[in-house]
Here is the input.
Amino acid sequence: MPGRELLTAPVEDYLKAIYTIGKGTGAAATNEIAQRLALAPASVSGMVRRLADQGLLAYERYHGVKLTESGRRAALRTLRRHRVIEAYLAEALGYPWDRVHEEAERLEHAASDELVDRMAATIGEPEVDPHGAPIPTKDGSVDETVYTSLADLIVGASGVVVRVAGEDPEMLRYLGELSILPGKRITVKSRAPYDGPITLGSGRHEMSIGPALAAHVLVAPLADRAGKHG
Amino acid sequence: MPGRELLTAPVEDYLKAIYTIGKGTGAAATNEIAQRLALAPASVSGMVRRLADQGLLAYERYHGVKLTESGRRAALRTLRRHRVIEAYLAEALGYPWDRVHEEAERLEHAASDELVDRMAATIGEPEVDPHGAPIPTKDGSVDETVYTSLADLIVGASGVVVRVAGEDPEMLRYLGELSILPGKRITVKSRAPYDGPITLGSGRHEMSIGPALAAHVLVAPLADRAGKHG
DNA sequence: GGACAAAGTTAGGACATACTAACTTCTTTC
DNA sequence: GAAAGAAGTTAGTATGTCCTAACTTTGTCC
Here is the structure.
């Protein structure tokens, strides 16, 4: 367990949050960390100082925080644990995709690297979790491709859903019912003005979703066929 | 998660320890709890008072502690989690029996009851863990059969190993090498005097083990054939 | 360029759990 | 039944994490 057990659960959560906010390299603001972890900003100030003392963060008072290389590695280890566990719960134990997150959130702090590696091996070394998020490799690299949100697709554009960002179970269940899932192909049929609902085609179905929801659906665009017809 | 998340990991560990020491109904002494959890006795005094305040223990100063019904139920839930996880790690993930304990020790505090139930279902509702210890059922009952220790078997007696008590990995590996495992049949061939080594037959093999080790091997005695021959 | 809002920090305290050192109670033995 | 040793407790302290309340810094807008 290299570098394990030395980090407490709260510390791992901070690092994960900072990584996610800063998407790899970027910085994170105190308030944003606080909000993501549902803590008071004052608590974050305190913790962030300690993490900086441990060399996990670069911290400048009043100017937010950045992961150091060591902090980034720790964050990615936790993220790997989280996502492998999610994938394993879904694959091997039949968990529905809207409930893997909560369970993984606790297990990620208790599972050894060996367990996580065995899980990954057992389900065939998955590259993404059930929401389509990429799983960091053991040596600390991740696919950092930035995908387009469904909310940004123009009318007529098609794409394959690669990922659903966010873990609110209700949202996930709803998207699941609509069959908006990683791997599904969708086409934007129309968009109402003033940020109104977006009408989609997927397979034989047609459906309408709001822009807030659409923003969570990340797609890999396909060749745009709209041009051919108009 | 009925009754979950309310108990911290240390609390669950205390209850489990007290249950194991008191084997169900019995009481536990402060020092014994301290030793089992590798804590100072003073720490136990403090915690035990708090657990009594929460109604999990009956506590009389200077006279040890007893689980209440509610404490016993909590202890058994944790024990179930622990043993199901051990069984699952061995069955589904190929963990060797000498390492399941350590991993389960951490996971048992993080796993939800649902996860544990899914694990149990996936491997066919096991009744014992990889060491042969009985798994409490969901409704809180356990097999409390008391088995004979191999150290107590007389020369000529035969039995089936039902359980190996204790989790020291080195001991488990050693017993594994000797093939002294749950389900194996053994016969006591001879015993050296003054608590000396015990010679066993198991299958075609013959081997000798010390009494301290033999005390950890619990057997279900079979009809004694020694009488027939002498 | 100063005032105000937003963002961030410090101070002081709470809680759970652990520790060591010093004290008390229980048990056993003569 | 008293002394010695074992067992157990209290007192005081430490650590990690959190909180609220009050303060400071930063950034923006006229």
Q: What stands out?
A: The radius of gyration of chain A is 19 Å. Residues 8, 10, 39-40, 42-43, 46-47, 50, 61-63 of chain A lie near DNA strand D (CB under 10 Å from a C1'). Chain A has a mean pLDDT of 92. The longest strand of chain A covers residues 158-164.
